[in-house]
Amino acid sequence: MRIALIILHLDPRRGGAERYTVDLAYALAGRGHAVTILASSIANIPDVPQPSETPQNPVSIKLHTRGMTRSAIYRSFLDSVDEHLKRNGYEIVHAMLPVRKCDVYHPHAGMAADALRRVSIFKRIQNVTNRRGVYANIETMLLEGKKPPTVIALSDTVKKSICASYPDMKEEQIATLHNAVDLEKFFPHPTHLAGHTNALMVAQDFERKGLDPTIRAMAQLPDASFTLTVVGKQDPSDYKKLARELKMGARVRFEGAMHDVRMFFNTADFFVLPTRHDPCSLVVLESLAMGVPVITTVCNGASELMKDGEHGYILKDPTDASALRDAIRKMLEPHIRIKMRDACLALRPQLSYAKHLDRLMAFYDHARSQ
Predict the structure, then answer these.
(1) Digit-coded pLDDT (tens) for 210-233
(2) What letter does residue 110 receive in the DSSP assignment?
(3) Is residue 191 part of a domain?
(4) How far apart are CA 23 and CA 9, in angstroms?
(5) Do 146 and 37 lie in a common domain?
């Protein structure tokens, strides 16, 4: 099958949709499909070992864009996508962001219309001409057109937002497909119990993912043997300053962007991501697959695959600093982490990337039959 995957930027080090797209491209190629990734910018993609039966690696094509503003560049990207699709015959067009035409729409950041609705009226008016507004307009035209695509929701929470934004959509047009994990790649590591406890956060938007409250919660737990490792591309200057002000400078370590985060899971005792919004955090699922319990929130679609108190802790309110502090305090108990580790490992079959791919192929077949 000839498949086009569409994403605006392609840099797997940023995680999220960009890493998912690369992983998906290689997984589809591993099943014998011809895969092309279309993007406006493409970072160097490290070589990914391929099974011997793979006929070819995915092809990445950087499409021409122009414009002085982000919205103008985005519209130019859409024009280039349209032009490319006219010249090349694909059996499936799978888009990770709003485009004018596709067979499968897979919004990793949530619905554009829902994001626009959450801002104030004043900002909504301003957004009409910027990229957020353009996203919402393109998405509306795509989903309310004559032949709307199959829409993949990363969680039941996202599915509810889709139904709220587009109440006229048919139920069979929307499917929930949580993110998944390559279980051979993300394999469990030995339990860490000796003296030192290391928490891990992997994130690209430190503010939204809750780094500030995490550092503040740590400061209320003056245990010198408890540290936090932060992995992410964002400039950490403000958070380093906060850590110093709270006398936590030596206990919070910033590692920058990493393509392969497995080495950090291997030394983590638990994972913390008190996010305000996350359709389905892939790093949370990778943590669970490696037997590392997680602290996150109900605002994270990945929490739908967890049980509070069994695989970690699910905070009801991402702004509840005392609840975050108490969850971290419990995680400092080795016997709690041992019990949770066993529960996390029992989740591994549910997180399988092979099962994820099987379901996705069923969506492709359904889209082709329409």
Answers:
(1) 999 999 999 998 777 789 999 998
(2) -
(3) no
(4) 15
(5) yes
